[in-house]
Amino acid sequence: MSDHILVEQDGGIATVVFNRPKVRNAISLAMWGEIAEIAERLGNDDAVRAILFRGAGQEAFASGADISEFKENRKDRESAMAYNKKVEEAEVAIRNCAKPTVAMIFGFCMGGGMAIALACDLRFAAEGSRFGIPAARLGIIYDFDAVRQLVDLVGPAYTKDILYSARALHAEEAFRIGLIQRLAPAAELEAQTLEYLRIVAANAPLSIRGAKAQMAAIFEGVDKHREQMQAARLGTFDSEDYKEGTRAFLEKRPPRFTGR
Hints:
With 260 residues, the protein is α/β, with parallel strands linked by helices. The protein has two domains: 5-201, 2-enoyl-CoA Hydratase, Chain A, domain 1, CATH 3.90.226; 204-250. Helix content is 53%, strand content 17%. It has helices spanning 29-43, 70-73, 77-96, 112-119, 135-138, 144-165, 171-177, 186-202, 205-220, 222-235, 240-250, and strands at 5-10, 13-18, 50-55, 60-62, 101-105, 108-110, 122-126, 130-132, 168-170, 182-184. Helix 1 (29-43) runs parallel beside helix 3 (77-96), helix 3 runs parallel beside helix 4 and helix 9 (205-220) runs antiparallel to helix 10.
């Protein structure tokens, strides 16, 4: 792993930091590959209960893909296919991660940065943040699954507005239309986000995993996954966490979940 992506862990919360502040944390081709590996690894780590994605500093979450690489790594159809495959693998790894994921956004969240944020379960942002997809200014078409997620969040009309205009949205508008789920003063965002993640990390992992799988099933089509979801739901009743949660409720104490 390079020093362009840092992974820190505090208790059950893992933090993934895009660490290129001099270029507003632009995502290089190598970083896309690292993101996929990290998301998969953390998703399979029983010690991790929730994952936070953020950019180094407070100027940008990620200003997008590193466009300086496009002359070589995205110069034609063949190279673009290879590049896009790396990007899609990173998005899929975050989207399919079994752990809850939150993008904590300071400053600019553009292009590829938006794709990462959209792949996360939730987006918490600081006042003054900016959001945009400048694909129309680059002559490219944005990733299909990211567009589908954007439609799911803000609806087709706002998605068309964002894609057609390629404009940057202020944080207040992003919050109003549902692109982000929490808006806080910059000085308070990190504390609020970590407080939320500690609450999530203390809950039953099987319940969280099941809820996330249900959302994925609804997103992809209920019938395709109904049997699998029903089996997962029923399986929780045989779990140690279900028994512990019930005992703790009756004993009026905090539960001690183990993920089994």
